[in-house]
Amino acid sequence: MTITLPDDVLHLICEELWLQRDFNTLFQCAVSSKVLAAPALASLYRMHNAAPVTYSGSEERGLGNAVLAEQIVRKWVLLWRSIILSSMKKTLFPYCRYIRTLDLRDLVNLFEDSRFKGKIRKLFFTGDLARYDIESAESQRAPKSKAKSARTLDSVSAVDGIGEVVTQATPMLDKLSGNVLPSALPRWVSRLPRLQSLELLQGAALETGVEIRINETCSSFKSLSVFEWRAPDADARLASFLQGLRPQTLEYLEIISFSEIQAQGFEALNHHRDSLKELRLSNLNTEAMLALPKLKDCTALETLYLETTTRGMDLEATQNDIFVEVISWLRSCKSLQEISIKKFVNGPALLSPLLLDNDIHLTGLELEGYSMAGNRAFHQALAHQQNLERITLKADGEDVVADDLTTIVNSLSKLTRLRVIRLLEGCEYFNGRHLCDIIENLAYLEEFWSGGYGIVDDIWKPFSKLGNLRTLYFSAVTAFTYGGILDYIYHLDTGNKGMALSIMNADPDSKLSDEEIATIREVLADRVDGRFEFELLRDPDVSEFEGDSD
């Protein structure tokens, strides 16, 4: 008896598989029957950027034998060919119409992969795609005797040409990423009525009145990410772009690397003060640091990330009025949930008033580039934020004393909702007792990273009570035994599925044999589908004092 499911049920099944990002099951559905092919392929190409063969999805490329690696790159080629050819109406199904994300960075990474040459390059550029096999100017100047297969591809021109044809056939596209040329972006945007997000390698792509086209075509546009923008007029151009967008529409802005964004750009962000929910600004230079008070009206923020390149700039001592204004701005962000402050000399002083504010309830906090010593007030204030679920601290542990360690241990142990603790630096003087005291009441903990010294098997029993723990990373100097590690693994249960156990600075005297490491990996994989890493602090065959002068 054959059971036929209604089309709407098939679409619901494929939708659920898409939500789970189950690429493999969807692929099997697509090749199993004509009835399932259309809904399965629609879901597959909605998330083509997460396919196991793409740059963003693959952890296997480059690993293992050369044959397997070449097979992966061939599949990568075929995926992109199917996308491009479908935009030319050369495929059975219109794959392009299903695409929601077009990440041209992935295509560049394919072109720049060391295996993209010879037969694989020819496979990609065969037939209707031959027009995009454009040689670089350098190759064109090379001697004619040079083999064609060795000539360098002009990947910028190739991607530009491919993007031109693909964007004409992707009406569902809501996210565009890559190195888009300034001459192309206004034209592409005008074809994408559902566009919500731009991720640009260079901010220069916005220097052509793109905001006008966005306003005319993209009613849902809300997110901008720029990797780098170093032009002299970058600040003025960003300000013009922000002010040119419909007011109160931008929800997300990220500047990832170096830029000249400062006062004008910051002030223009107030044009979106009620809509802006997430702001990420990296590599803030001196002028940008001094301009931070310009953001004072952006108080609807829920996520804030600030990183500076001016490590020695002490705002509190040299620009106290600006320092006070920044604190005032942060405290006015009553909806703030996650904050990250990196490389600010005054990071603890900026954050402490925020932590003690009864109207602010953080779920995530990250502080990097501060001194563990002398900041007890900040560490005490941490305990006031009882909603914290994630905390990352990266500090300088020099001159730390016992009271500093006790203060931070006491505060962390009181944050009973914590799911992630990452103590990346500054905790070199933690011992096993400190670690056990931190986790004693943290029943929801899923991820724990810490340094320390003299960590031995007696910590395993307290850690085995953490039924949700799935990442345990010791950068601490440890002296675990083979039996102690195995005993811990045997106590893991279903809540620990996927456990990543990393012991990265083991004392050479506690060295495990290759057979013991293999057994631990096998048992961990068998019990909870986990993985195990083990590294020694130093080579046991090399003296600890080798190389020191007399």
From TrEMBL:
Domain of life from the UniProt record: Eukaryota
InterPro entries to which the protein is assigned, alphabetical: LRR_dom_sf
Name recorded for this polypeptide: RNI-like protein
